[in-house]
């Protein structure tokens, strides 16, 4: 919205700064961060009052989690509120990719909110049936995939861009939409599975979003794409403002989610963040790079898939408990140790993902 202040500029004054994506991204970060600090404590107080017993704790989970009983959930409302408010304030409203990622974020947040509300109100860990959540998630992803394809340049529509390999595109044709659905739905559920320890999901999500934001800015500038030999996707640069807002809102939330957590993000936050990462990857034609940048989420999801399939086949378990962060809990690792080491892994993977921009 503030972009329109450029209409007051004569080309060399303060208002001219609002033309620059980087300036507005900085403003979005600070706005979301301040939003988190201002509204964090009041929101937690409201959630604690409304939820009473807080998020239900699994009976078969690690014993250390029983001490977390009574902690309120739905803290993702703080992240989403900061993110949406800041993005609407600082991003251009005529950019279709901004509305795409906002739509996916809010839609998945709504699914997560319904799931969290069901768990808290019924005081069980089931929530909304998995098939219902999956069906709704697929519908949202279909809309997002078609939306993205429609706004991509003609030469990139329904194409899969390969990282590292210069100018290489694979025409997926009618299979592009199903592929994009897998990316968005998979990312949403992978982040959701990762959200099992205090601070574990939010920092890797912030790191991945920041990395994708840099990629979005690069592929949205023709001069950068010519230098880097990557595909030019006009308009995606504006996504940097969204990711900056996500980082600021994430930091504001982490202030209260740091061990011992005063609030959990719940499915409201994890599904929204994962869906946003998937939508950004689809918008920027960097779907495969997301698997690198968000590699931690991929491993968490694979650990669950492997555990379930192997148990059904043999009656035995590969891991002491899945997702894999619980495996390390069962092995005796302290929760902060797991969280910080997983953060380090996320940062390493982000650097590898960024390197794909130049390695051709």
UniProtKB/TrEMBL annotation:
This is Phospho-N-acetylmuramoyl-pentapeptide-transferase. Its cofactor is Mg(2+). Pathway: Cell wall biogenesis; peptidoglycan biosynthesis. CDD domains: GT_MraY. Catalyzes the initial step of the lipid cycle reactions in the biosynthesis of the cell wall peptidoglycan: transfers peptidoglycan precursor phospho-MurNAc-pentapeptide from UDP-MurNAc-pentapeptide onto the lipid carrier undecaprenyl phosphate, yielding undecaprenyl-pyrophosphoryl-MurNAc-pentapeptide, known as lipid I. It catalyses: UDP-N-acetyl-alpha-D-muramoyl-L-alanyl-gamma-D-glutamyl-meso-2,6-diaminopimeloyl-D-alanyl-D-alanine + di-trans,octa-cis-undecaprenyl phosphate = di-trans,octa-cis-undecaprenyl diphospho-N-acetyl-alpha-D-muramoyl-L-alanyl-D-glutamyl-meso-2,6-diaminopimeloyl-D-alanyl-D-alanine + UMP. One of its GO terms (biological process) is cell division. The gene is mraY. Its EC number is 2.7.8.13. It is a multi-pass membrane protein. PANTHER family: PHOSPHO-N-ACETYLMURAMOYL-PENTAPEPTIDE-TRANSFERASE, PHOSPHO-N-ACETYLMURAMOYL-PENTAPEPTIDE-TRANSFERASE HOMOLOG. It is found in: Cell membrane; Membrane. It is an enzyme of class 2 (transferase). It comes from Ruegeria marisrubri. GO terms for molecular function: metal ion binding; phospho-N-acetylmuramoyl-pentapeptide-transferase activity; UDP-N-acetylmuramoyl-L-alanyl-D-glutamyl-meso-2,6-diaminopimelyl-D-alanyl-D-alanine:undecaprenyl-phosphate transferase activity.
